[in-house]
## 1
Amino acid sequence: MPQKFILALLGLFNVGFSFGQGPEHHIPEQAVTVFSINNQKVLSNISLNELISYDFMDEIHQELFDRSTENKTLEDAGMDFNKRLNVFYGKTNYYELSGFTFGISNQQNLFQALDDFEAVPSPYPGIQLYRSFFNHLLIDKNNALLIRVEPLEDYVNQLTDSTWYSRGNLPPFYNEEEDPDNPDYNPIPQENNEINEKNYYELRDSLQYTLNQEYLTIILKDLYVSNNNLFRKDSNFRDLLTHEAAGVFFMDNSRNIDRAKNLWYLKTFLPTLYLDVQDLYEGNIITGDLLLLDQQIQFNLKAHYGDALGSIYTSLNDAKFDKNISNYIKKNQAAYFTYNVNLRNAYEKAFEVIVPILSKTKDPEVSYDLLMVKLANALINKDALFDAAKGSMFITFGGIEKVKTKRIEFFYDEVTFEYGEREAEAEEDMPIFTIGFSTKRQDIPEMVLEHLSQVTSKFQKQGDLWVYNKAIFEAAPLYLLNKKDLFILTNDSVLAKQYPDGYGKDRLSKKTLKGLKNSGSMAGYADLQALVNKFPKEFLSGSNQALIESLRSKSGTMHMHSGKTSKNSTEVQLTYDYTESLNSGKYLLDLINTLYLLNK
Amino acid sequence: MKFKYLFFLIPLLFSSCIEIIDDLTLNADGSGTLKFTVNLSSSKIKVNSILALDSLDGQRVPKLSEIEAKIGQFKSLLLQQDGISNVKTEFNAVDLIVKLSVDFKSLNQLQEGIQASLNAMNLNKKVTKEDVQWMSWEAGTLKRTMPEIFQQELKRYENNDISLLKGGSYACISRLPGQILKTSNNNCKINPSKTAAMLRINTFDLKNEPSILEHTLSTSP
């Protein structure tokens, strides 16, 4: 009897543990990244339209909200401010999932805002299920999960190709009539009138839909039948939600598929070794607290890891700041970043930790590679190697400047109007960057540059300065400085020609330098007005364009520095100072959006 | 369909410092030669930085090799059109200069040939007759303007860098079989022998008023 009572109690506890609490219990365990926002502090003055304008809502909002959301606050939409809003994202080898979970105060109001959703039969007891295009809304009492699952495009294409060719089809892009080698080639495109068989794109759509349903079912069964969720699975996540913060951030780096891609070969061909290497990342979780202060937002990030990885990181971060670096950062620099590590220590420790793991495998290829690593370790002059590349570096952004380039100019004979070509000077806008590395062996880069200058006339020595002509897009020069135990590459002609020994009195202040010295391995600063608003998006890839766009029109400064590294964690603090007296919750959402784009 | 993003190149041209030379030579029978040159060498950094991207503003950016292949395809297609011969193209991928030279039997056949060739390339925008009807030769009078396809793009780009546009130019050169008696545009320069005319306008002024490139040249019979 007492046993039955205990079992019944445990059963009740289990159900309660899974569903009886807040919306955080509805986050699928497949989620890798979660932003959990304290609604009272952040969202009370945010309108629905403002919220859905963020990139982190973009994954799901497009078919979700329409004019029904206009002039409505989140409260009008039936959201419960006493509960958290959790935005999540995850990616496996086969699909991506994204969505959010939240509390409901008034279900009727909720469906006035989300009026495109229609009820569908729910296979999950006690759970209401609604659907709108690709989005699914699941309601358990007063908690909701809004989820979107999509198979990865590459995987869908792979399956489609496989099915398409196995049916004996020709490549979908090949058209016999468009082949210029075909004597009947007709450049005017012909319509495909075959209607009895799915074409390539129809086949792909079918597969995509089927996979979409399959993956959604896997996730929802796991959540509502097996009662698995991230809150239940991860103690770090549970602990994080007890923090008194406006928002918290969670990322399970051990399941971060983009990092895991680097290990795909091991996973595919040497699964045992993969598991050993994967062990290194076990417990590699990144958590963060977002704090709202007076005209400041603080983001305190902590990377957690196991002993093995921790021992490597501790060795890596056991480095003194190279004060020569500060000579080449101006006190009014728009943005800079310094990275200060001890590569030699990290190498020795990584060798000590990773070689025994690799030694376990009997695979001849890995064994051969391991032999090469051991031979290199025994034969290479590590003093020379790590004196040449000590591990410290810096990057600065100096705004947009006009740089001298060459162009082709057409000149005209005023009598005949005939014209010819000649090379002329030109000026173009260019973002100015400088990157420098600490080195104790200046003779080594010098030797390489001397050699290159003999091979190509593009490398020229001008006094102490090396110039690599037309290095950037066949147009602008790159300057190389090999001075003061630093090897510097820059497209800043002013730095290279007027300040080759550093900025002197215009360099970083002593106070700032002290701050950099006291930082851990990383420190950074950005004046958002100078950095974001002036940076031409043409110079950035797609995801970085979105990042810059998300920060446009923002002012204020950002500081970043890492704290101490222990065997089990490293801390990083990001501070965002702003002067405008705008809603601080709005600033926090801006910052969350930036972090989302960085982590996506 | 594969190359529909090539129309993306047209706005790219006008967001750069661009030099266009539209050089027409006409014979007495209406036949002639068109030499069309697009020079982007003044914006090498900007254009190359864009070409290095996978996409910009949600549109796929073509690779240089794809552009080169498309220029080759255009040449082949143009050669197949009625009244068109001796088509030559040149693409300087380092300095970003494209040159086209084509002989034609009549201006109508040239413009129809260009329209048909562009449409056969399966670009995502259908090219109409009006898009490429920028020259006519009738009763000893040549009428010229800028191709509509360029005008539309110029109008769209309201916030372009003014200095880039001011640095660019469109040069319209006409070499005619008879003596030029008069021109409708006072900015048009006529050579001492009165057999050729040139009108060169910067792209900033063209953006504000495309009609300033319009001109007619009347010749002696």
Note: Residues 64-79 of chain B form the longest helix (16 residues).
## 2
Amino acid sequence: MTDTQWETYEVFHQSKRGDAHIHVGSVHAPDPEMALHLARDQFARRLRCASIWVVATRLITATDYQDETFFAQTTDKSYRDPKTFGAPDKLDPHAS
Amino acid sequence: MKPNTPLQTLLLSLADDELILGHRDSEWTGHAPILEEDIAFSNIAQDEMGHALVWYSLVETDTGRTPDQEAFEREWDSFTCCRFVSYPKGDFAYTIMRQFLFDQAETVRLESFLESSHPGLKEAAGKIIREETYHLMHSQGLVHRLGDATPESRKRMQQATHMAFPQSLGIFEPLEGEAELVSGGVFAGNRSLQAEWLRRIIPVLHSVGLSVPADPGGVRDSCIPDYGGRIRDHNEHLKELVDNLQSVYRSVPGGTW
């Protein structure tokens, strides 16, 4: 079925400055400015929010789920994994 | 019931405008042409009712009558909202035009209250105006987009302008005892607010090619203000709305959950 509504914009939400913007959903909107307003109504009313990004869905270049070979690891690359030495979960910058 | 003081008259007119328009906005819930606008209007409806609560609470400090009593126990012909907010929601163009004209009026009104000699009014205006800014961005944004989008949208927005303009002049219907409020520095008065409001709305409407009945050569009958609301002279639209608004409350008087 064709979508008779406005085009979609993907919405990215940041809960505080410095955090990553996280994809939270999408909105229909006639242009980016209205998309921001409508995203505010839908995603920023109850969540704590420092910033919102919107980007037209059509501008996103994405992989195809059918294309399984895109991520394939066909040869043994375990030598690249840093698993032969331990590291603390949280590095202490003041440790000598 | 004791007659209202001029301040109570002002506060009740503000509160009733917000409550009734909020109810009309809520009628789009589940029916708006676009899902996102459905959510936006439901959001705006709740905000307007929140503003009504602020004004009713200020009345309560004077009269002891609670916001629930004001909203749910008064008869429909005791409300002092302007007639403009009581009319059926119409098509989406009319709804957007009404919201735009009202949001501009509310903004002008709140800006005047920021200078008020009445501390409660001033403080409340400071809180409400932050939300109102976004209502105005929303409604004005859609006036810009629908005003010159397609022949159909232009036609409907023009019809909406002609219908809503004289009704919206009713927002500024003089209040009983208003002169006392103006001389006491409580607010600038409806005549002055209306002049400022016209200075703001007309350029926006002209910028998208919409003509206003007040323009030179416009339809003079469409400039006669739709007064009556502030003196409780309403029509069946408000009666029907208030019946609906109060139906649950009146079915179990004093009920709580």
Note: Chain A has one helix and three strands.
